[in-house]
Amino acid sequence: MSYYQIGGSLRLNAPSYVTRQADAELYKALKAGRFCYVFNCRQMGKSSLRIRTMQRLKQINYQCLAIDMTRVGSENLSPSQWYEQVIAELWRSADLITQLDLKQWFAEHTNQSHVRLLAEFIEQVLLPAFPEQKLVIFIDEIDSVLTLPFPIDDFFALIRAYYNQRADDAQFNRLTFCLLGVATPSDLIRDKQRTPFNVGHAVELRGFTLAEAKPLLAGLPDQSTEILAQILAWTGGQPFLTQKLCDLVAAHPSRSVGQLVQEQFIAIWESQDEPEHLRTIRDRLLRNEQMATRLLSLYQQVLQAEPQDLKTQEQAASLNSGVAVDDSREQIELRLSGLVVKQGSQLRLCNPIYTAVFDQAWINRSLSNLRPYAESFRAWMTSQQQDESRLLRGQALEDAMQWAAGRSLSRDDDEYLRRSQMVENQAVKAANEILTQVNQTARRRLKLSTRLLLGSVVIVGVVTFWTGRTLYRIQTISQLEQSSRGIREQVQADYPSMRDRNLLVLDALNAAHQLKQMSGNRSRIQYPTSTPIVALQVALEKQNSEKVQFNGLQTLVESIQFSPNGQYLAASEPEDSPQDWMRKMAKLKPEEMQPPKNILRLWSAQGQLVMTKISQSERMLDEFRYRGDTRFHLTNDRLFMNNPEADGKLRIWDFSGNFIQALDGMWKDEGNLVSPNGRYTLIRGSDSKLKLWDLETSSGQEIKDDLESLKHSQGSTRFRFKNVSFSPDSQYLMASYPYGEVYGEPPIGMRGDKVHIWDMQGHLKTSELPLDGYGDLPHFMPDSRSFIRLGSIDQLFQHVLEIRDLQGQVQSTVSLPKQGIWPSRVVIMSNPQLNLIVIGSISSGDMASVGYPTRYDAGLRGSAILTPTRYSTTYSVGSTQSMILTNLKGQKLGSIRANYGFFQQLQINSQGDRIATLKDGQVQVWDRYGNQLAEIPGQAMAFHPDGRSIAVVAPDHTIKLWKVDDLDSLIQQSCQLLQHHSTVNDVVDISNPVKRLCQNIN
């Protein structure tokens, strides 16, 4: 019998079981009563870990039950049968066969709902059966429930409820769950309208290390540590591959490890893959055709970023190579396949065996089988996306758009199809111009020659053939805009019947469906019009009677902010409007005048007012501007408030309203109040030196700069840092200093800010000078080890964006699209999380207010929005009239334009796929391609951390939380709404085209 076990759960006494860090972590967490989940790719040892942990818990008198969801089944089951099977598995695992007649118990509870039946079994049977023991329920192979033909959101909601009920009912402190499988917490509750499965402690399973893998030595020739190290170098410690390769080495001691790998794993791997492992990875990558292209493209990026030689691989972590982790759906799916692993902030290849099997040639073959335009696409990519002759046209483009409809493609595929459409549209435009010229020529020569006229008619006929579709498209767009505007106007009326409201949803859905058809059912493009999207959003919103509302405001507010977890919302407003305050002051003597006061209110996520605090400004009457005096910052459990115009102290409260402390010497210039983790802030000490203050230890580190010896041109020292920001991981501090205030008026070519970066010990990491041009303040990248900033502007007025490391060295540059406007009138805002860059043209008079905010700028209203935060990025953009959206490749995604007037504020959500603008009392929300999604009356806005909701200060002095979806989500919600009322209440009949659309979606 082999010493090693290949595949399946290792038996309890298996000598080749490798104890990892996860063994101790899971045991300790469950022993402490914590809900846990172990989610990872297949054949990583999850079931073996469960068996060992159950045995250890039983030894300390814990009652452990286990359900294997593959035994419950997922095919040909009704919801009631599935829940009964789960109860039966618990009944068998608890060994209650002789104590409870399960059939009789079911008969006595026939009137219960499915989830209530399970709850009563747990509460009335299981817990009373073991009154003196703690109960741990292990649910293995949890991913098998994801293929059920019906939702079981209530099942996971029940587990979450047991966790939440611990505070109210002590008996649930004895109950703990552990979920294991190939899934993510977001997979468990499918209904996005419900609270996600957000409880539990994640236990991460990693590959074997050499120290952990010592039990495997016993079966190897000569128990050689060197051979074991070679095995782990090939497998990356992946449990299944390691056990299998160890078994092969033990069976063939004369063969080298490398030879066995080539013969048994890499060569003709599809036929030798027994037990199946590599084929499982392949099938998971390609099983969902709609996502396969995106997964393969992402894997290709990781593969190409991976160093090739072993020496470089060992240095990879310090070199920061690889693809940055962003926890997108594609990255999570790729990690669950097992091909890549998360190392620090990078995605890395799991092991050399996978790299050799799933190499670039395999990727090319797989993509060719998926893409109908594979050959042209590869040639276009080879040309660095420059060879327009490789783009699709005519029928080939239409066929590709039809194939792409409904699929989740890679960004390169999206760009290829978008560029193809753009070139095709340019050709149609050129044809229109030719048609116009030909018509004019024909009219001029009509009297001169019948033959020339005949020739012109032939040409006109040819051109008309190509332009007919364009003319029809223009007419259709006009009709869509007109009907959608009519729908929005009707929605404003107070329709008493649900039928009338649903008919409006039906009309809006028809318009949205036409828009999708016109765009080839593509989602990642800029639509020719956004009015159907906004109309459908408004029509659906009319049906929403559960909108969260925050009350208690008295005057206009332009500064609101969510806590990072979205559980609290704060708003700052003046005690009086400017007019009321000035009337009061006019009635008083000068010595009786009081400075204006600002009120800060804090609500829970449910709209309950939990705290009210007041701060006071020292501004005089002629300087008074009533908005933006009080600065505040929220963490998940603390409120930080500072009024730089009063005493400058930083005051801190908890969310119960208890005062914690007041910190003297608060830094009064622009910047974030505290670091993302709520631990650090910047203060000016009694010696006037800046200090990085640790709020936990109440100690500070002086921060140094390289400006001590520099004087202003007039001889006075003017050192004033601003735009202070902390890195996402709270390990670094960045601040900028206007170049001109250090050296006097700078010459052309040396404008902008001098950037300083310190670590948390106050050590200066970099102090680098700009190249040229004004731009928005630098931003840390998500990895916290680099930052992005505006670089030089070349002679053709093309802006260059730079990504620099913390030492100021340029890592990469991006040439942004040429805008045709003067360089000093451009400001760049970026959200590196999804590589979204917004370029806005502004009037020259507003340059000082953009990127360099000061309290004297009338365009900056609300100090809480002076600088970007970790969770949303808000800017005051002065008089920005148009904005161009690009990515880090410099490719234009779309544009946003204010038809009349200018945008006053811009906010980008943390995911980088929603943009909110404020203009003339209207908050407009856009996607990253420039499609308008919503328009909401309001004076201020703040994205919820989920990125899909936005809080807006309404004209009636309330704050309402609005959900904003893209066109695909809106169409799906509309179908669900109409189908529900059509089948349940018989309120509205769905028209045939919409019915087919909804059937296809479902």
Kindly state the percentage of residues in helix.
25-40%
C-alpha geometry: globular
Q: Supply the helix-strand structural class.
A: alpha+beta
Number of helices: 28
Radius of gyration: 32 Å
Strand order in space, largest sheet = 2-3-4-1-5
Low-confidence stretches: 310-319, 449-455, 618-629, 708-719, 741-751, 771-775, 820-827, 842-873, 875-879
Largest sheet geometry: 5 strands, parallel
Mean pLDDT: 75
How many strand units?
Answer: 40
N-to-C span: 51 Å
- What proportion of the residues form beta strands (DSSP E)? 15-25%
Break the fold down into its secondary structure elements and pairings.
Elements: H1 21-31, E1 36-39, H2 46-58, E2 63-68, H3 69-72, H4 79-93, H5 102-108, H6 114-129, E3 135-140, H7 153-164, E4 175-181, H8 185-188, E5 201-202, H9 225-235, H10 239-251, H11 257-266, H12 269-272, H13 278-286, H14 289-305, H15 310-319, E6 323-324, H16 329-337, E7 340-343, E8 346-349, H17 352-357, H18 360-370, H19 374-382, H20 394-404, H21 411-445, H22 450-491, H23 498-518, H24 531-542, E9 549-550, E10 559-562, E11 568-574, H25 578-586, E12 597-604, E13 609-616, E14 631-634, E15 638-642, E16 650-654, E17 659-663, E18 680-684, E19 690-694, E20 699-702, E21 722-726, E22 732-738, H26 739-743, E23 753-759, E24 764-768, E25 779-780, E26 786-793, E27 799-805, E28 810-815, E29 826-831, E30 836-841, E31 872-880, E32 882-886, E33 892-897, E34 903-909, E35 914-919, E36 922-927, E37 932-937, E38 941-943, E39 949-953, E40 959-963, H27 967-985, H28 992-1001
Parallel strand pairs: 1-4, 1-5, 2-3, 3-4
Antiparallel strand pairs: 6-8, 7-8, 9-40, 10-11, 11-12, 12-13, 14-15, 15-16, 16-17, 18-19, 19-20, 21-22, 22-23, 23-24, 25-26, 26-27, 27-28, 29-30, 30-32, 31-34, 32-33, 34-35, 35-36, 36-37, 38-39, 39-40
Helix pairs in contact: 1-2, 4-6, 9-10, 14-16, 14-18, 20-21, 21-22, 22-23, 22-24, 23-24, 23-27, 24-27, 27-28
